[in-house]
Each structure stands twice: as structure tokens, then as C-alpha cells.
Design goal:
By secondary structure, the chain is an all-beta fold. The protein has one helix and 25 strands. The protein is globular and about 55 Å long.
């Protein structure tokens, strides 16, 4: 069963339980995390609440991503860039004790996300035209430096994949994924200056708020690209976490419209992530092969706090069926797929 939400309201009731469970094409619920109630000593709850804004953009020449995350006990700031021609991948990250200097908005459709210290400044804003991100990191990659000013166009009728799911009895995940946002602006990396045009650059947002189990695992896959005639196509697929009986986050995004998929199986070799991945679904609507061309490994090991991500950049080929039965062929659609294990 895929339960589509239709009523607005608050995320959590007065007892800290989810008021609704399911998925929606637009955010329906106010993220009232102040109602969370899962520790007997509520003063410690803030250290277990996870919040993040992850932006990414594919240009004809590279992949760029920037994140502001508040993990409760610490903040995590990271930026990375991949050059398709050379295969060079460079990443810098900051672990910020007690998330000092981080501001994240209550909901995904308004507000400003901010991080600033002596090393880097990141600012993500919801603006009338869509979403605007600004990044300045002069010390990035040994002083090579990186900066970006990018507007992600988001029309009011552009649909997104939003899920509200329980994790155990008292924990939950409220997540919004937006694919295929036409992007324009500039990216400067050392001596490289790239101007982004919405006719060939597409971005995405992963907006997450929730309370996870200490030991967590998930798979995620995403893609945003163009057909030869300029139409846009995207994928968002995920599994491995929480209670997905009411809703998964799996969908095809065609010209800004969601086509909902049920359960999707990630088939890959966890001992060799560079081998092709296989994606199939429970309704025989999805049959894809994902061929990686680059592996990004991000590891944080602080003892009781541990995170390891294998994010594979690659290309999707195969077929997906829309809600009305139309077969959509995909041929070398660029995107990524990942495995993430965490103790957090």
C-alpha cells in the first residue's frame, strides 16, 4: 500500500507521535520537532535529532554538491566537486561541535539555511523563483578555493517526493526530495570558471528531518537529466530504513511530475561497488542497470560516532513505466547510487 497524504497539519501530535504516515507530492505537514518525545529526559533530545539540507547539481562538465547538516551533538559541513573529464574528485568537510554557527529552517518551503565560520560560508535560501545557494570556501583543496552562486528554478507546480515514516515506536523520518530543478549561475573552482545554464544543468535537494536509531543503514539513488528533446526526467529510489509499509520514496519524475513506484530492490555487490547495480520493483514497472564510473567514499570515525558512505556516480539505462502505463526508456541517464552505514 502506498498512502498518499491529502490533509495538512502538524507532523507530531502532543504525545510526540506522527500524526500521519505516508507520502505526498508537496510537503503537507509542519515540522514541529519541539513536540518530539522519545527520551525521558527531554533536555537530551536535541542531541539525537538530525536535520540536513543537501544540494547537488549536474552540469555538462562536473558534479557539485554542498551540505549543511545538524546532527544534534555536532554539525557536518561538506562540499565536493567531480570533474567528468579528468575523474578528479575533491571534497572538504568540517565537523562542528554542538553545531555552532548552523541555522536550519523549520520547513522545506521557506526560510534560510546558514553556516559561517573562519573557514567557509554556506547560505541556502528559499526565494520566489525557487532556491538560491551561495558557497564560499577559500581554503578548499589546499587553497585552490571554491565558490558557487546558483539559482535552482522551482515552479509552484513542480512536484517532489515527500515521505513521513516511523522508525520504531518513537522515532521517525520526514524527508523531501526534489529532482530536476533547472539551475543557473556560476561555479568557480581554482582556475576553473563554469557558467551554469538551465538548458543543460539540473539540480536536486535532499531535505531531511528526523530521529534515527543509533545504528542505521540505507540505500539511496537519484538522477536528474534531459531527453534529447529537452524534456526532463529523474529518479528517486531508496530503501533500508524505517517502516516503509505505508509509503516508500520511490518514484519517476517526468517533466516535474511524480509517478509513484512501490518497493524497489537494490542489487549490487557490497564488496565491489564498481560492479553494475540492478534495480527492479515489486510491480514490474522498473528495470534498470546502473554502471558506475566513479566511487566517492566519505568516512567519519569518532569512536561512538561513525559514518561510511559509498556514493557511486554512474549512468542508468533501462525502462520505467509511468502511472498511466507509458514505457519510458532511459539511456545513460547520469546519476548516483549509494550505501550508507552509520552509528550516530
Amino acid at each position: 500500500m502506498q498512502t498518499e497524504l491529502s490533509q495538512t497539519g502538524e507532523l507530531l501530535d502532543q504525545k510526540g507521535r506522527l500524526s500521519q504516515v505516508g507520502w505526498s507530492r508537496q510537503p503537507m505537514l509542519d515540522c514541529n520537532l519541539e513536540n518530539a518525545d522519545f527520551y525521558s529526559l527531554k533536555m537530551f533530545q536535541r542531541f539525537r535529532i538530525k536535520r540536513w539540507d543537501y544540494y547537488a547539481v549536474f552540469t555538462p562538465h562536473r558534479f557539485f554538491s554542498a551540505t549543511i547538516a545538524d546532527l544534534g551533538y555536532a554539525g557536518n559541513i561538506f562540499v565536493y566537486v567531480l570533474d567528468f573529464a579528468t575523474g578528479e574528485l575533491h571534497e572538504e568537510g568540517l565537523v562542528v561541535p554542538l553545531s555552532k554557527g548552523i541555522t536550519l529552517p523549520r520547513n522545506s518551503d521557506q526560510g534560510e539555511s546558514i553556516f559561517e565560520d573562519q573557514h567557509a560560508q554556506l547560505n541556502f535560501q528559499v526565494v520566489p523563483a525557487g532556491r538560491y545557494i551561495s558557497v564560499s570556501w577559500p581554503e578548499f583543496h589546499g587553497g585552490r578555493g571554491i565558490s558557487a552562486e546558483i539559482l535552482f528554478h522551482q515552479p509552484l507546480d513542480h512536484e517532489s517526493m515527500t515521505i513521513v515514516i516511523p522508525i520504531g515506536q518513537r522515532r521517525f523520518y520526514y524527508n523531501r526530495k526534489i529532482n530536476c530543478l533547472p539551475a543557473e549561475g556560476s561555479l568557480h573552482y581554482g582556475d576553473v570558471n563554469e557558467n551554469l545554464s538551465p538548458i543543460n544543468c539540473l539540480g536536486s535537494l535532499d531535505w531531511g528531518r528526523g530521529i534515527w536509531e543509533y545504528q542505521s543503514f540505507w540505500n539511496w539513488a537519484s538522477a536528474s537529466g534531459f531527453f534529447a528533446d529537452g524534456q526532463t526526467v529523474g529518479l528517486n529510489l531508496g530503501c533500508g530504513f524505517g517502516d516503509l509499509s505505508a509509503a516508500t520514496e520511490n518514484c519517476l519524475v517526468l517533466n516535474g511530475k511524480i509517478h509513484k513506484l512501490d518497493k524497489v530492490k537494490f542489487g549490487y555487490d557490497p564488496h565491489d561497488f564498481m560492479q553494475p547495480w540492478k534495480f527492479t520493483d515489486s510491480d514490474d514497472r522498473l528495470n534498470l542497470e546502473f554502471v558506475p564510473f566513479k566511487e566517492r567514499v566519505a568516512t567519519t570515525n569518532l569512536g561512538i560516532i561513525f559514518s561510511e558512505v559509498h556514493q557511486m556516480l554512474g549512468k542508468y539505462s533501462g525502462v520505467v513505466r509511468t502511472d498511466n502505463g507509458e514505457i519510458i526508456p532511459l539511456n545513460n541517464l547520469i546519476g548516483f547510487a549509494e550505501e550508507h552505514q552509520a552509528r550516530w
